[in-house]
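Today's session is about reading a structure prediction critically. Students often jump straight to the picture, but the first step is always the sequence itself: look for stretches that repeat, for charged clusters, for runs of hydrophobic residues. Only then move on to the predicted structure, which in these notes is written as discrete structure tokens rather than atom positions. Here is the chain we will use throughout the hour.
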Amino acid sequence: MNTATAWSDDHFIAGDVALDFANTVYRRTPEIGIDLLDSANALTAWLHHAKLLPALDDARDRFDGSQTALCEARRMRELFWGIFEAKTDGRDLPADALADLLDTARRGIGSDVAVGPDGSTAPLTAQGALTVLALHGVRLALSPSSQPVRSCDRCGWFFTDTSRGRRRRWCSMKTCGNQAKAARYRSAHP
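Below is the predicted structure for this chain, in token form.
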């Protein structure tokens, strides 16, 4: 039986595609939850939903059971975790994770990704979509942002804090925020 994740807009709430990719586990805290990237098909579907793979009708637009691509994607997600955790904590970015991410981005330039004169990137293959995703991660890691990267108090998912006071605590009010407020109410009204 295939229990592949049905990707929806609720999986894309972080405000940046690299953060959304880092959030492809059910939760990150207090321990790592179920891996939502459970197959190469789930990875292909995620990239399609993220609009990094515009078409799914060409063999070049699929990983087709490639465990290599799935392992590479999961490794990139771990690099994102290390980099984004450092950003949320205000620490220096881990040099080895940043170097690995840059290497991942470099490998697909030219053969799997077209770079336009304005610096825009377009994947030419499914592998190129991973390269574009790595480039998004590099951009987010190295660009100072007026919207800081935060981590949800309940599930650990990353998000850009777009709130006015830059004090947002939850990835989504719909899920974690509602649960936190309900728990606080229950504890105050036994």
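Discussion point for the tutorial: The longest strand covers residues 113-115.
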